[in-house]
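Contributing new complexes? Match this layout with guanosine-5'-triphosphate.
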Amino acid sequence: MAGYPYTSLHDLALKDIEWERWQRLVNSIAALFNSPVAFINQASNKGIEVLVASELPTTHYSPGGSASIETNVYCHKVVRSNSPLYVKDASKTNEWDNNPEVTEDNYVSYLGYPIHWPDGKCFGTLCVMDTSPTNYKQPFLEMLEVLRDVISSDLAHLYKESELKIESRLDPLTEIHNRRGFEEAFIQFQKLGNRLNRAAQLLFIDLNNFKKINDTLGHKAGDEVLKRFANALRSCIRKTDLLCRWGGDEFVVLLNNEDKVAQKEFIERIKEKQENDFKNYGYKEICFSVGAVEVVPNINCDLTQLLHKADNIMYSCKKD
Ligand SMILES: Nc1nc2c(ncn2[C@@H]2O[C@H](COP(=O)(O)OP(=O)(O)OP(=O)(O)O)[C@@H](O)[C@H]2O)c(=O)[nH]1
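Output block (do not edit by hand):
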């Protein structure tokens, strides 16, 4: 196992992260404890990763540095037990004999508190280390605990922000990308496609006579049809493809496939799936129209133009 099941905060595009405040806080902790190092560490997919380190010449590890899950560093014990650890003098036990923080950097004293995710799971640690044995008084321990709470509360805000970010890019009814989410994902997709010189297939799909369902069976039944259709689409694409409810009864699919045949195969798959699904559900007459275009890397990759073209093709199919 490479690390813990969380992405490094450094890899998340969170705008409001409190790096500067966290930095000042860590520097102040090192000064107050008169210690050569203080850190905020994260239990990330890299192991224990330094997020913020005190800015002192005596601080030997810097942000981005990490210790793998197999290394016997103090923080792993805090994360695994999700409880504080105070080692006053590591030389008094043999537990830390193979800890490189002790053997290589002589950090024989460690005080660390777990920082929590909003659900109570361990996010990482707030810790101070020293090259001499220590015997911190109770108010110092309490102060570090309170500062840990401040970081946990910052984290709860960040968590909310990233959740909101995800929510604002999903269509609440079908739980697939909304227009905004798709447009953003398309930009990333396109960058990669251009770099790799890889084509893709874009499909604009519109349900036929959907209004009739609303008018005859009610809006709720209409919603159910949209959800079922989105699920049918989802089951016919790969994880590397993109799916979006463009609006109303319109959907957009981007197939990460260079072969134009993929368009036809996808349409066949979705027809078969949707016919079976809706037959069971009692909506035999539901069908859809599709317009498909190829996204050619570095040539025709403007989303608005591509969708306009696909929409026109779809519309002429609908009329036929
Ligand atoms: N139930 C439900 N209906 C919606 C939703 N969003 C849009 N609609 C309805 O979808 C209908 C779309 O109508 P049209 O664009 O005429 O589509 P259509 O009836 O499929 O007609 P054609 O596309 O020409 O086949 C409108 O009646 C909208 O009110 C939604 O979230 N839920």
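Reviewers usually confirm one structural detail per submission. For this one: Strands lie at 37-44, 47-53, 66-67, 85-87, 109-116, 122-130, 200-207, 242-247, 250-255, 288-295.
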